[in-house]
Amino acid sequence: MIARSRQVALALTALLAAGAACQADRHESPGHPAPSAADARGFTLVASGDVLPHSSIIDRARFDAGGSGYDFRPMLAGAKPLVGRADLALCHMETVYGADGNYTGYPAFKSPPEVAAGLAATGYDGCSTASNHSLDDGAEGIRRTLDALDRAGVRHAGSARTEAEARTVTVLRAGEAQVAHLAYTYGTNGYPLPADQPWAVNLIDEARILADARTARRAGADVVVVSLHWGTEWQDEPDRQQVTLARSLTAARTGERPDIDLILGTHAHVPQAYEKVNGTWVIYGMGDQVAGQMFNHSGSPDPRGNQSTIGRFTFAPPAKAGARWKVTKAEFVPQLFDIDAGRVVDLNQALKQGADVTAVRDRIRDVVFSRGADKDGLVMGE
């Protein structure tokens, strides 16, 4: 494993204690008032990267549960202060769930269904579920995953158990806004879609995405958010497909409004740039929020695979009905998954506790700003 500073562990302990002290109301936290947009009937949305439980992550959750069952709440606690304060919080559940103790990591993932309870306890309202691992255990894996998310009260988009579900847009409430969440993946690692269930996983297709976005808007969605599992693994910069598709999707408009209001990217294993494209924010890649030790294409351990960001966007309502809800503040928060401690770490908070993580924080910041997002108003949040 990649050695971490002892200071990180000390900071982590303090952060977890602070997270545990959060109030039961997920929209309030002592000393952390809600963003001002809420007072103006706006809302805040946060989104985070891939949840990818390797075997070591499963083992850690078993340990955290005292050897009986699996508890993912402690490893996600470092994200709870950010996630819990948002009006709407979205994650990316990259893997499917197994059953009866039959859980596996790479290459064909089957995660404990207790992951869903951990996500709910952290404050997530919904997750994208379309990824290259969506068919690792066929249609049954999708069914178990969505069943577990339903039991935990976590909404989902990107995969489906029935054709009717596949045709239904996921809509979540955020303050006074109706937010549609759509999700798609570039592929499924060569696993074919079930012959009798071609709708089981949403695949990236520009025309399909725009048609779904327009359907959501006609159905009353004030804001349309699209999650895309795309890009080139281990590449800090977005690839040509990401850049081209982002331009096309953000350029599409119906009447006075763009068809898509926000794009959230996953898959590359590393943090990628944020960019304002045609007036719409695009996160090309948030990185892995939870993952075991990662090895790049050369087979070498690569610490970037345990670095990520949380995006936070404050939306304000339009001045007139039918106009666009605008992002009035765009932020990112750099994170690290400490593979030794098995914990998500908010790097800015860790720095305040004296951890020696400045170089990691600054590397993530430089990547996030690499396409000029700072000039368009993106800031590093707390």
From TrEMBL:
SUPFAM superfamilies: Metallo-dependent phosphatases (SSF56300). Residues 1-23 form the signal peptide. The keyword DNA-binding does not apply. Keywords: Lipoprotein, Signal. Residues 44-293 form the Capsule synthesis protein CapA domain. Belongs to the CapA family. This is Lipoprotein.
